[in-house]
């Protein structure tokens, strides 16, 4: 018979003090707090990228660029060397084989002269994993873990944590050290389906604990997770890749729903990706990524997130103006890092000219220490266990 634990509302309201024995030990091993004031053992896992040792003028530019192909050409390497962007993000177009991905990561890091430069990827599972089958194993969509949790909470928590650790292991084996996952979005009925199966579910409390379990698993093998899309994309009626979403729900209601997972995770999540969504209760026209009020008053103050903030991609149609103007607006709003996922040297050059080096505050956040990584997992064997657990649903 599946073992269950008390309602997640107990964790929200009073922690695990009333859960005894093995249930409490297992739940605490996943990073749950003993009580509502104790945010548990989840470490501050923001990687040190050799940033603080340098003076501000020589720090990396506060931008993550993409690359158009699986291999960097001479012009691209020269651009990265001269511009010194903070990091690189990989997409399907960049991932053909394990050896090729490792070479690409090495070539970028050699170009910028930082052996631990952040290399990001979108690897959520389901339809959103840029290292795709059949070359790489298929991982379940996050919603599958939410369905398992509804049937068997302990099995759902274990499977989610294992999933984070298995994905982290696979990424680390290829030289990728930052994953743009998990989603902490809470989709609502009638919203655009862009979130859909990418979310752990529609209950903000369940989303919180499963996102935390995923983060804990990923951190345990030395890969940095990014929660997204702060302060929440689940209520958006249009896809921000294609249009500008507006959310006019009262902020007090959002505190109880969309914002809740991000607020609960704010003291432990190292990075968060900001949504290109307008929250009219704070700023009537500007998406959060380019809104000083949304960044400071909503994300930093109201939600309480003090980690690294990275924008969603500036190529998305929710933003207006040139790419250079978008990048400058993101940084001007107080977002630590600009994400520019596409293009080539001709488009990167004006973006680089518009972006400043990392601020003191951003450099300090990036320099928070990363605990030693634990042993990596057997990915195939772990996926077998995850598949068996998901069968319980």
Automatic annotation (TrEMBL):
<dbReference type="GO" id="GO:0009254">
    <property type="term" value="P:peptidoglycan turnover"/>
</dbReference>
<keyword id="KW-0326">Glycosidase</keyword>
<dbReference type="InterPro" id="IPR001764">
    <property type="entry name" value="Glyco_hydro_3_N"/>
</dbReference>
<dbReference type="InterPro" id="IPR017853">
    <property type="entry name" value="GH"/>
</dbReference>
<dbReference type="Pfam" id="PF00933">
    <property type="entry name" value="Glyco_hydro_3"/>
</dbReference>
<feature type="domain" description="Glycoside hydrolase family 3 N-terminal">
    <location>
        <begin position="86"/>
        <end position="358"/>
    </location>
</feature>
<dbReference type="InterPro" id="IPR050226">
    <property type="entry name" value="NagZ_Beta-hexosaminidase"/>
</dbReference>
<dbReference type="GO" id="GO:0004563">
    <property type="term" value="F:beta-N-acetylhexosaminidase activity"/>
</dbReference>
<keyword id="KW-0378">Hydrolase</keyword>
<comment type="similarity">
    <text>Belongs to the glycosyl hydrolase 3 family.</text>
</comment>
<dbReference type="GO" id="GO:0005975">
    <property type="term" value="P:carbohydrate metabolic process"/>
</dbReference>
<dbReference type="InterPro" id="IPR036962">
    <property type="entry name" value="Glyco_hydro_3_N_sf"/>
</dbReference>
<protein>
    <recommendedName>
        <fullName>beta-N-acetylhexosaminidase</fullName>
        <ecNumber>3.2.1.52</ecNumber>
    </recommendedName>
</protein>
